Amino acid sequence: MIETQDILFCILDICDTGMGYALGYYSLTKSKLLREYSKGKFIGSEQRCTLETDELKDFSKRRVMHEWITSSPVEIIQEPSSSYYLSECDEFPISEYLKLIFDFAEEMRLQNSPDGVIDSYWLLSGISQEQETNAHQLIYKQYLSTGRSSYSEDGLLDVFTNSWFRFRDLSDGKAERERASKERRAAHISSKLSNPDYSLLNDIATDITLKARNGELMEVVGRDDEIRKVEIALTRRDKNNVVLLGDGGVGKSAIVDGIAMRIARDEVLSLKGKKILQFSLNDLSATFGVFSSECIKRFIEEMKREKDVILFIDEVHMLGRAKHLTDLLKPLMARGDFRIIGATTPMEWSAYVSGDTAFVRRFEKVIVEEPSIEDTIKIVETVAPAYENFHHANFENDTIELAVKLAKKYLKSEKLPDSAFTIIDNAGALVRIEANQEVTLIRDYQNEVDELKKELEIAQGIEYNEVAVEEIRRKLNLKLTEFQGARNNLTSTHYDLKITKDDIKKAVEHKTNLKVKNQDMKVGKDADNQELLRLSNLKSILAEKVIDQSDATNSIAEAVIRSKTGFRNPKRPIGVFLFLGTSGVGKTETAKVLSEELTGSVEDLIRLDMSEYQQEHEVSKLIGAPPGYVGFGKGGILTNAVKSNPKSVVLLDEIEKAHPKVYDLMLQVFDDGILTDGMGQKVDFTNTIIILTSNLGLNAIKKDKRVGFTMVETNEICEQIIREQTMEAVHNFFRPELLNRIDEIVTFKPFSESTILRITRLLLEKEIEMIKKSGYELECTEKAVELLATRTYDPENGARPIRRGITKLIETPLSELIINNRLNKGDKVIIDSDGVELVFEVLSQ
């Protein structure tokens, strides 16, 4: 049976208990109670002896009882048994007294801490109320033996009252809470700053150089020029600070990693022994709290003292928001007391920092451009084994090259090499998921960490085991370092799974929700042969899709072929063309067809209607608002479009309607292939084809009596007259410096009757295909085509009226047939002509 003294000794075996604190206050230790118990007299179930003191007065009575209890051994009874058991020990029942004590403690829990557990002090209070228990007898005798108090009939009731517990002085876990509170106070920045050995830099920063020595960083490829510029700036005497400016994903942080790795390998003698510490300004602000001035002072003092530290601040533009900090840093940076590597985008640098010219000139700017496709292929091929080891799958031949090219073409909002890494990583994940394999690297690491955590929990449960605990924690940190090293392992290994070109294609389609075209899947020699074949057929393809404008299409095709074969000025656009002619002769259509052939999509055409730029202030919409104006920092419509798609066709429609300031803007584009936007960034136009369209001379043609259809002689407009009229209008309207920068002025001739028939047939074929998708079949006779061409063609408006005529003369009657239930799904409609109107014949299915 479990009796009250058993619970008493068990609780005193445990540290940090409320019962232990209460007994310890009176020097009642476990060893004293055990000695008292060992000297006790076991009387079984007999009644304890009593002393007759009725004849004595109260004072004498208490003195006699005090002496009798302290001089006599404690009488240990066999406490009456109950039918209850402790859930942790169902082999022995508990005594009736012990049940009463636990019942009391449970009621105290419900009343004082309903969401908590039983506190050991409540058990002591219960023992104090049950005077017949062995535990009460042992404690009371030792209590009287201390001489602090005299005998009382109430025993321990007045000693261990619940009022003590109300102030939480004697509760379980008091020492643990105080230790945690002390650690929190010690971790507070105010306590840290009072410690002269405290290093703010080590607290808020990460040592990248140490990570490089531990093999936790990825190898950096193809950034030797940028790394060399940074090294030169860092080793200067004064203003030895540098900022890396580049779009997101081009590899700014990778350059810093590359410098750290060279320092770790002692490859840079001028930076030998230096260490690069990376920290975020957000971490700095969070650490400072209300002690910002004191922290900044410590921060500056430490940086001035530590000459081997180079700070790497990612998103350095955030310093522009901390004016008080930049004002303190500027004189120190000028004297060389600080060495900072910053990284941000040009847009954010201009928006937040460029206004503080004194701060800006402390930095050496290093522009980090997006690497070329060839350089990106080398970078990704070098790093690819790390992805193979992670996914346990090997890349097949040419898959890396394909991933880079598809990333460049389809992930236009992202930059190389980051977009290429995204594609190969997604492809590896897809292959691994389809093979139903988990990431073994993470699985093995997590299993080892879980085992160490179990060992740590066991070790923490053992008293005075701090050495073992620290050793397990060291192993945990070591496992993380080993994991990072294994994650960046570039050793090639053979795996059964393979990542194919189709997997790269799936990854791109999953990422972009776009269908990858078959011609884009060619790489290497196949891609070169396909490009040569496409160039050799470019003239015929353009002539086929743009009818009867061979002069214009041949000029454009020749310019493209010269560019692709290397025979052009690399500092100018591929070609600058001015398309002239009456409305509807195919000027805009030619630009669309050219965009589709070069980029694979009409959506990639950058088309700007210049009628929207008739006012001088609207020019800023093209390149972005200047500083101080609304919209500054967002870039311009034209410059942003070319940035995201540098190999595009730019169509400036109806250029004569634009303000003359637009022509001044285009001069540097036509001559040098460069346009500077509102933020001062240079946008490259050297891989674009620029097409200007104009209707100049159209009014003169309309007024000329000789021009137009003549029923007597011919239905064709004289091409020579149109060319003369339009060229005269062009030279009168545009300044010579603009015309001299245009590669070729192409005049689109008006359509002949035979051409109009071909265009009509072409548009009808597209209409038939569209109607077929709706569930109907359509067939047009030659008479119907001739009537449609005759009824719709307008020599002054070109082919556009034909589209409107198809809508009015074909689509409208077909719609009426459908709503009148004369045409059903699957029926065939034959369109003929009676010489005056179109005739519709419905053949039911």
TrEMBL record:
Keywords recorded for this protein, A-Z: ATP-binding, Chaperone, Coiled coil, Hydrolase, Nucleotide-binding, Protease, Repeat
SUPFAM superfamilies: P-loop containing nucleoside triphosphate hydrolases
InterPro entries given in the database record: AAA+_ATPase, ATPase_AAA_core, Clp_ATPase_C, ClpA/B, ClpA/ClpB_AAA_lid, ClpA_ClpB, P-loop_NTPase
One Pfam assignment: AAA_lid_9
MF term (GO), any: peptidase activity
Residue span, AAA+ ATPase domain: 238-374, 573-713
Coiled coil: 435-462
UniProt KW Coiled coil keyword: yes
Domain Clp ATPase C-terminal: 751-840
Single biological process term from Gene Ontology: proteolysis
Function: Part of a stress-induced multi-chaperone system, it is involved in the recovery of the cell from heat-induced damage, in cooperation with DnaK, DnaJ and GrpE. Acts before DnaK, in the processing of protein aggregates. Protein binding stimulates the ATPase activity; ATP hydrolysis unfolds the denatured protein aggregates, which probably helps expose new hydrophobic binding sites on the surface of ClpB-bound aggregates, contributing to the solubilization and refolding of denatured protein aggregates by DnaK.
Protein's name according to its UniProt entry: ATP-dependent Clp protease ATP-binding subunit
Originating species: Streptococcus koreensis
